[in-house]
Amino acid sequence: MPLSVSRVADASASASAAHSVDPDSTPATRQLRVCVVGHVCIDENTADSGDVLRSAGSPAVFIAHQLAEFTGVSTTVLAPRGTDFDPLAPEISFFGAARGDTTLVYRNSFIDGVRHQQCLYTDSAVPKPIELHTAKLMRESDVVIVAPLLSNLAPAYLNDVFENVAASAMRLLLPQGYMRRVDTDHVVHEREFTEWAQVLPHFDVVVFSDEDCTDALDTARGWSRALPHTAIVVTQNRRGATIFERGRSRQVAAAPIAAVDSVATIGAGDVFSAHLALGLAGRRDLDVAVANANNAAASFIEAANVRASARDESSQLV
């Protein structure tokens, strides 16, 4: 059974309130070691303007970028990737070299603010084996974040992962990939997370969006009742987030933000999760950690919206 959130080993602090992020909030005396397990992808995002933006994507990438802003935090990713990925994100540290030519691709487009997705090259996204060197480094991790984009991280694979994780490590799951099914036409559909009873007990905290599955709040409540040692957090965009513990819920409001370009919201949930992980690793109260994570996600969206507006203005001048 995973370590209780209230007893997570002391490590770092998180984002401060009022949309601000303090990159020096982690202690200089001890490095926080974070391992992210799952998938990476190449995002092809169609903005509201019609422009297609190609970049390194996935929760693992957004989380690694966010954690890089903090002093004394090192992040290593265990995920399959091809040689086409590294030029897009040379700063990301991985366990092992790229294999093959292609990486999982997600194509995101928005119609009336609703995201539509296609997923390509799923055959290239077979989970990375846990080799001896990888196992040694994982045992030294203070935080382990599991963030799949597909449902092929089987319970048996997670058992192998956590056999090599210290009992004191804080464990966070972003189950998005378990809630996705990719058809033969590459269209992404909702999938029932049938393995939840085998997967969730590994974790201290589980975070997902109310857009990831139908009846997200009811689903979270049911999981919380069944798993009293695991906290469930459902993010709800402008409505903030709802925390479930032992079947009971409480709301953590988000600060209001202006209307944004749809693409600006991509990655905000992963920013939330990165800051939540830091807050909990630093022994923050769960409600405080969620509130700070809400602020960090809002700051991210506002900055991304400014970039999108500048890009639109630039394209109109051409």
Number of domains: 1
Helix-strand makeup class: alpha/beta
CATH class: Alpha Beta
The shape, in one word, is globular
CATH topology name, in short, is UDP-N-acetylmuramoyl-L-alanine:D-glutamate ligase
- Helix and strand pattern: EEEHEEEHEHEEEHEHEEEHH
Question: Roughly what is the average pLDDT, rounded to an integer?
Answer: 84
Major sheet attributes: 8 strands, mixed
Rg calc: 18 Å
| Major sheet strand order | 4-1-7-8-11-12-13-14
Amount of beta strand: 15-25%
**Euclidean distance between termini CA atoms:** 58 Å
Helicity, as a percent range: 25-40%
Can you characterise this structure?
It is built from 7 helices and 14 strands. With 318 residues, the protein is an alpha/beta fold. The protein has a single domain, classed as Ribokinase (UDP-N-acetylmuramoyl-L-alanine:D-glutamate ligase, 3-Layer(aba) Sandwich). The strands form 3 sheets. The chain has an 8-stranded mixed beta sheet, sandwiched between helices. A 4-stranded mixed beta sheet has the order 3-2-5-6. β11, α5 and β12 form a beta-alpha-beta unit. α1 packs across α6 and α6 runs antiparallel to α7.
Task: Note the topology.
Elements: E1 32-38, E2 41-46, E3 52-57, H1 59-67, E4 73-78, E5 105-111, E6 114-120, H2 132-139, E7 143-147, H3 155-162, E8 170-173, E9 180-182, E10 188-190, H4 196-199, E11 205-209, H5 216-226, E12 231-235, E13 241-245, E14 248-252, H6 268-281, H7 286-317
Parallel strand pairs: 1-4, 1-7, 2-5, 7-8, 8-11, 11-12
Antiparallel strand pairs: 2-3, 5-6, 9-10, 12-13, 13-14
Helix pairs in contact: 1-6, 6-7
